[in-house]
């Protein structure tokens, strides 16, 4: 595997896994006041677009990374909607 | 321009612009308690990796989108460090 591919995988894993601590924090504390609803709404829309882009390109890493992040983003958005 | 390219641009713009409402909110309110430090730390690291990946691929859209998001991510991280 060439080094840019490895860096690409590290990048994809990092920006996906990054949402786990936020998800856990928001789930546990039920406190989402300081989180921007607009950010997660637009971010989730963007992730859906990235997923469609990945499908068009038949790129499994793009599809996978974005679907996982999208699922977490939607959950954070639900928590935000519930707890304000 | 082919449709997947257009979708890719919409995706890149959306996931970048998404951080503007969070940045404005955190800057104005100075309240960052509900935001996960770990998320932004890992996310910024990931964005740096995406930027390096973009440089290796000589892809201007990847470099640009990620450098802009990285700058916003670092600023949110600084606000979080200051306001807890």
What is the topological layout?
2 copies of one chain form a homodimer.
Chain A: H1 3-17, H2 19-29, H3 37-56, H4 60-83
List its salient traits.
homodimer; mainly alpha; Monooxygenase; 4 helices
Uncertain residue ranges of chain A: none
CATH-level-2 architecture of chain A: Up-down Bundle
Q: State the helicity of chain A in percent bands.
A: over 70%
What is the fold-level CATH name, i.e. the topology of chain A? Monooxygenase
Spell the H/E element sequence of chain A: HHHH
Number of domains of chain A: 1
* Shape designation of chain A: elongated
Say what oligomer this is.
homodimer
Tally of contiguous helical segments of chain A? 4
Radius of gyration of chain A equals 14 Å
Major sheet characteristics of chain A:
none
Can you describe this structure in just a few lines?
With 84 residues, chain A is an all-alpha fold. Helices cover 83% and strands 0% of the residues of chain A.
Written overview of the protein:
Two copies of one chain form a homodimer. The first copy, chain A, is built from four helices and no strands. Chain A is an all-alpha fold. The first copy, chain A, has one domain: Up-down Bundle (Monooxygenase). In chain A, helix 2 packs parallel to helix 4. Chain A starts with a helix and ends with a helix. The mean pLDDT of chain A is 95. Chain A binds chain B through residues 3-4, 7-8, 10-22, 24-26, 29, 31-40, 42-43, 45-47, 49-50, 52-53, 56-57, and chain B through 3-4, 7-8, 10-22, 24-26, 29, 31-40, 42-43, 45-47, 49-50, 52-53, 56-57.
